[in-house]
Amino acid sequence: MSFVQLSFKVLQAMEMLQKALQYSGIKWLVGGSCGLLLHGIELVQSPGDLDIYLDEHEVEALFHILQNWALDQPLLSTTEIYTSTLSHYRVADMQVEAVGGFSVHKNGSHYYAEAEYFLQQYALNVEIQGTVLAVMPLAHELLFNMLRDRPDRYKPIAAAMLIKPEQHLPVLQDLIERNQWSPEFMLRLDKLLGTTSHTMETRSRG
After folding, report:
1. Which of these, 54, 117, 184, 186, has the minimum number of CB atoms within 10 Å of its CB?
2. Cα–Cα distance between 180 and 50 in angstroms, integer?
């Protein structure tokens, strides 16, 4: 089985975004397939787009700065399990999806991706050709992909986290505590990581 790497156009799009936003004060992070590749997670399919995450209150400011690249205007998107404000851009011939105020609600679990908090506390900073990019923490990617039932993603993510548990499990513990999880989800998480409910306690956010 062969694994993919980030293409030149993805790297170029990341660099252009960073340069466009570096003095804006907007807190954003790379996520999705591109984020996983920056973490060193092996994927078999090349990213179809570049996902970036930010908090809801930053969406309009981002759109104002990137409007020359915009394919649409920010729009609230609500599905059966997801809520976010989405906007799309064409940067260096790569589609960029900006995800604002992302949350997932499924089977009694409620998870909110706090971009600014991640950036301040847990972001992976990756330097590419002199450009420093902030990447969503693996703990976020694990929870998100478990909620959407993507074992092809969450199993390699979990394996990578367990190589350096001292780095990743405290982040996971914090995200567990900041959100709300069903007992069934916690049992799945315990089984996946070999932890127990004594080490991964739940409580409702707030």
Report:
1. 184
2. 28
